Amino acid sequence: MKLSRRKALAAMAAVVIGLPALAACGDDSSGSDGGKTTVNLGFFPNITHATALVGLEKGLFAEKLGSDVELEPKSFNAGPAAVEALFAKGVDATFIGPNPAINAWAKSKGQAIKIVSGAASGGVSLVVDPDKVKGLDDLKGKKIATPQLGNTQDVAIRSYLKSKGLTADKDGSGDVSVVPQENSQTIDTFKQGEIDGAWVPEPFASRLILESGAKKILNEKELWPDGKFVITHLIVRQEFAKEHPDLVKKLVEGTVASNDYINANLEDAKTAANAQLEKLSGKPLSEEVLDSAFKEIEFLSDPIPSSLVTGAKNAESIGLLEPVDLNGIYDLTYLNEILKAAGKPEVETS
């Protein structure tokens, strides 16, 4: 983290100082049948999850995990669904946004997950039908889509609206009707005129703009210090981490390697991410959408803890989260070991 953000992170010191390292746990990485160990890795088909998309397409995670591990990628529309799968042991680790990670921590009373690495910052916008919404002061009475109730974008818009003196109730009523729906559905409902706009991650914001004539009226990074906020980080099941600490470290290695690859080979990374999206949906993004989406996102290993704290406070303020103690939610031990070994600055935690 940048030194200028030390003060912003001071409140987060207790979260990450003095945590028991996952590395201290025992290791049992053999499969139950004596064969390969299966690692179920969750992610979303979003450009904000390009760390996962590129890492999978280029074989970076498979390479780090090794030949004794069977990697099983699992795609989700939004964070709450990924958390449900994690609680059901359907995934061992997943790339996810901050608010669902907070919810998982709160619901399990700190027993379910650990955040072990950052992945991306930015890449979220409020886009609208310019014929129906002229600007931010024209949102009252409008219908705005988000990916899922309680996901990171859903919390962000409800908190933003509250800061402007507008209500957005969970049942869709209020000054502004916030309508949670799958991102792919939002593309269609916007075209059909059933919604007036959407607060969505990339590439869906760019798709709405370039394919359907939407207008961006707010880039979420404008609401955050230095324009940085965690949009994607990597979490692991604590039970999995205790059983396979070596595999957790390898997943973090894959995450760092993938971000390094994106930042050093941007054009090829775009192609790789698009190839994964085509496999998932049957159709790749246009070059124009792909370029637009990538421009909005910064891929970095820093999980930006201060923004997680703010996200939790925002969720509490709108009634989507009971007050929660985040002490212990981070274990950046492996991340900092990897960064130090590569001669890179470690992620500061205070």
Q: What would you say this structure looks like, in words?
A:
The protein has 350 residues and is of the alpha/beta class. It has 2 domains: 3-122 and 227-341, Periplasmic binding protein-like II (D-Maltodextrin-Binding Protein, domain 2, 3-Layer(aba) Sandwich), CATH 3.40.190; 124-226, Periplasmic binding protein-like II (D-Maltodextrin-Binding Protein, domain 2, 3-Layer(aba) Sandwich). The protein contains 15 helices and 11 strands. It has helices at 6-9, 13-16, 50-57, 60-65, 79-87, 98-107, 152-163, 183-191, 204-212, 238-243, 245-264, 266-281, 287-295, 305-317, 333-341, and strands spanning 37-43, 69-75, 93-96, 113-122, 124-128, 143-146, 177-180, 197-201, 215-219, 230-237, 297-299. The protein has a 6-stranded mixed sheet, with helices on both faces. A 5-stranded mixed sheet has the order 7-6-8-5-9, with helices on both faces. Strand 6, helix 7 and strand 7 (177-180) form a beta-alpha-beta unit. Helix 3 crosses helix 12 (266-281), helix 7 (152-163) packs across helix 14 (305-317) and helix 11 packs across helix 12 (266-281). The N and C termini lie close together (9 Å). 51% of the residues are buried. Mean pLDDT is 90; it is low at 1-33.
Number of helices: 15
Structural class: alpha/beta
Count of individual beta strands: 11
Give average pLDDT, whole number. Answer: 90
Element pattern in H and E:
HHEHHEHEHEEEHEHEHEEHHHHEHH
CATH architectural label of the largest domain = 3-Layer(aba) Sandwich
> Biggest sheet, in brief?
6 strands, mixed
Q: Strand fraction band?
A: 15-25%
CATH topology of the largest domain: D-Maltodextrin-Binding Protein, domain 2
